[in-house]
Amino acid sequence: MTHQPLNTEWSTEATAARRDNYYAASQRKFVPFKDPIVFQKGSMQYLWDAEGNKYTDLLGMNVCISVGHSHPTVVAAAMEQAQQLTHCTTMFYHPTPAHLAEELAATMPKGHEWVVHFTNSGSEAVDLAMTMARSYTGNLDLLALRTAYHGPTASAQSLTGISGWRHPGMPGNVAFVAEPNQYRGIFGENAGAAPYLDEIDQTIRTATTGQIAGMFVESVQGYGGIIEMPKGYMSGAAERVRAAGGLYIADEVQSGFGRTGDHMWGFEADGVVPDIVVMAKGLGNGFPIGAVVAKKEIAAPMAEKFMFHTYGANPTSCAAGRAVLQVIREDKVMENAKTVGSALLARLHELKDKHAAIGDVRGRGLMLAIEMVKDRKTKEPDAATTSAVFEHCRAQRLILSKSGPFQSSLRMVPPMCLTLEDVDRVAGGLDQAFSSL
Ligand code: PMP
Questions:
Q1: Does domain 74-330 have CATH number 2.60.40.3500?
Q2: How are the residues of the chain apportioned to helix, strand and coil, as percentages rounded to the nearest 5?
Q3: Is the whole-model pTM more than 0.90?
Q4: Residues near ligand 1 with C-beta < 6 Å?
Q5: Residue 27 Cα distances to 152, 174, 222, 419, angstroms
Q6: Is the ipTM of this complex over 0.95?
Q7: Residue 407 C-alpha to ligand 1 middle, in angstroms?
Q8: 116 three-class SS
């Protein structure tokens, strides 16, 4: 039997009607554009809507597309695997996930034995890391940052500080520390890491049992609005949390796979060696996969009980993951993120010099943001201007993302094959958008 045509109906209205009728309200809510877009096709950093308009995807389909939409190498690897054997649970052995585990372990800091537990998503990996930290330490309390985002499952939500993403009924035992935001953090502009590290100590003393299971830190915060950790913060946080019996857990779901331009993993910028690393998104370049990579001894106690993710280590997603790592290596993807990201950052700074609505420009590699304010002195966040610029950009076929606790930042996390010519178009488009406010 040949399969039925994937789609015969591409009109926005018909798709919208089906969504309205058959998606739960929770799945329909997060549509940031005024008018919906139906995407039909993707190739590398570009997308095409159902009317044939071409867009530059600065959102990387929510940071999932690390090396390019429908990247031919990744698609070919996944297709070959799917045709041979689409799924093989971890009850049985299969070489593809075993190879990927070895390759991921090899990307971790030397001097430790690293092991991998595959999941299907970032939040499942976060949940697993929570359980792993609690099993290993015997402690319950966790720390996270106020503007953190760690995922939609109930436990990952409990670690998510941003209130707009928190729903009723989350599990507890999480204390939040202030994010070391160098633009609008509680200790003022460019306060560095030190006062925020003291705050971790104070929080442990005042808001926890004093016995910590672990601290989760996004090496660069994504939904928080691209908040970089200042020098010394990640290593200092690891010291403090370890002194309280806990583990340091790096969430690399957005910042990993060379996106920061300098290192494969964001935590490497601070020389810290995490106990557990959580990853997803870019690993599959759009195929669903997540992973917890942990020091061997830390993962061991969990084996006293069963833990089984039905689709974990799915060979098709793992074949995609192996191809992603190959492309990152062979196509010098990280190096491109550095060159093109630096060029884009320089252009964003020029825009800040020209347009008073921009309060801050930040990030590194291809993980960048601009934040809009009503007044540069008061730094009052300006969500309305952010939305207006966002819509103007859409009209110019640039897909960005609004983010941050005040929805006042525009986040840029494109596929890492973005080029210098794209940078020209993006900077020109943003300039026009700000000029037409
Ligand atoms: N951690 C971070 C830093 C994320 O950005 C996300 C997803 N946006 C997650 C965890 C959760 O990943 P997923 O949506 O795949 O469950």
A1: no
A2: 40, 20, 40
A3: yes
A4: 121-123, 126, 149-152, 218, 222-223, 251, 253-254, 280, 290
A5: 12, 26, 21, 33
A6: yes
A7: 17
A8: strand
